[in-house]
Amino acid sequence: MDLSTLQPAEGSVKKGFRIGRGQGSGKGGTSARGHKGAKSRSGYKSKRNHEGGQMPLQMRLPKRGFTNPNRKAYIPLNLDYLQDLSVKYGVTEISIEFLKENGIIKKTDLVKVLSNGELNSALKITANGASASAIKAVEAKGGSITIA
Asked: What's the whole-model pTM score?
């Protein structure tokens, strides 16, 4: 082995044209950028959604609907899920603080109890909201729902 037989590792050398190295290379002159315009200049970056002066698509499409900035989003908790929580943690009282401490909801979340599923034991539940059928189901088992 000597210096005349050394070669770069496979895939380490990028093959392609050296742009802007004279007319003889075939990529001289304008260096394959065309004549004039922003794209021919150094430092050119195109903005997302820019369509070359044509009205951008998101501006051409009609705007529909309304987003209420005062909307309150509730995290729904079904009765069967609350039953599973009471069995898992061995509690009969489920409050918003309990749910936050155990990582079930985030600090700023609002909770609404829904009536999907069966309740097997009497639970004392504190929540930000509850459906009428959920309140009936909990009270039928001897529990109570407090709206905080």
From this structure: 0.58
**In this structure, how many other beta carbons lie within 10 angstroms of the beta carbon of residue 107?**
5
Strand order in the sheet with 93-94: 93-94, 124-127, 144-147
CA distance 44 to 2: 45
3 state DSSP class of 16: coil
Q: For residue 39, what are the contacts with CB-CB under 8 A and spacing of at least 6? A: 33, 46
Closest by CA position to 126, among listed 73, 72, 70, 77: 77
Q: How far apart are CA 104 and CA 99, in angstroms?
A: 5
pLDDT (tens digit, 9 = 90+) per residue, 45-58? 988 888 988 999 99
pLDDT digits (tens, 9 = 90+) for 75-127: 999 999 999 999 999 999 999 999 999 999 999 999 999 999 999 999 999 99
